[in-house]
Amino acid sequence: MKIEHVAMYVNDLEKTKEFFVQYFDGKPNNLYHNPKTGFRSYFISFEDGARLEIMNKPEMSDEPKGRTRTGFIHLSISVGSKEAVDQLTARLRNDGYEVISGPRTTGDGYYESCVIGIEGNQIEITI
Predict the structure, then answer these.
(1) What's the rounded mean pLDDT across residues 67-74?
(2) What is the SS3 assignment for 15?
(3) Can you say whether the dihedral through the CA atoms of 97, 100, 105, 107 is positive or negative?
(4) DSSP state of 11
(5) 120 in the same domain as 90
(6) Are 51 and 22 in the same domain?
(7) Are 54 and 16 contacting, i.e. CB atoms less than 8 angstroms apart?
(8) Angle between helices 13-24 and 82-94 (to 10 degrees)
(9) Chain Cα centroid distance, residue 123
(10) Considering the entire predicted model, what is its pTM?
(11) Which domain holds residue 99?
(12) Each residue of 87-126: pLDDT tens digit?
């Protein structure tokens, strides 16, 4: 078995799509739109075959995203090397995103950083 994709609702589909294209080399499909429900989505594919679906619909709520809430807490993306983690973290920081940890080697041996990315979602950048 494998996880086929992960999905998240977002307020700004276009801005979120561009975030994952610009920083993580994601490849989006064409916009899907159901005019009856107002639902819109993109699937963003990554080099190894992983996919992220970003979605939007008119009646969404947007509750504050506490860092230690229950449920899904972050999206972890492997960028291939320690140097790539360092470079991407610096790039995101320079572009105004909040780096909340790292880059560092964690107690369980991961080299990573964590950034509050688009729409307050936590992104973990790792080797």
Answers:
(1) 81
(2) helix
(3) negative
(4) S
(5) yes
(6) yes
(7) yes
(8) 140
(9) 5
(10) 0.91
(11) 74-126
(12) 999 999 999 999 999 999 999 999 999 999 999 999 999 9
Does residue 51 share a domain with residue 83?
no
pLDDT in tens, 11-54: 999 999 999 999 999 999 999 999 999 999 999 999 989 999 99
Distance CA 65, CA 78 (A): 23
The token pair at 78 is 């492997």
Residues 114 and 84 in one domain: yes
Asked if residues 57 and 69 have their Cβ atoms less than 8 Å apart, the reply is: no
Phi/psi for 125 (5° steps) reads -110, 120
Record the tokens describing residue 6, joined without a space: 């992960």
CATH code at 93? 3.10.180.10
Q: What backbone torsions phi and psi does residue 19 show, to the nearest 5 degrees?
A: -60, -50
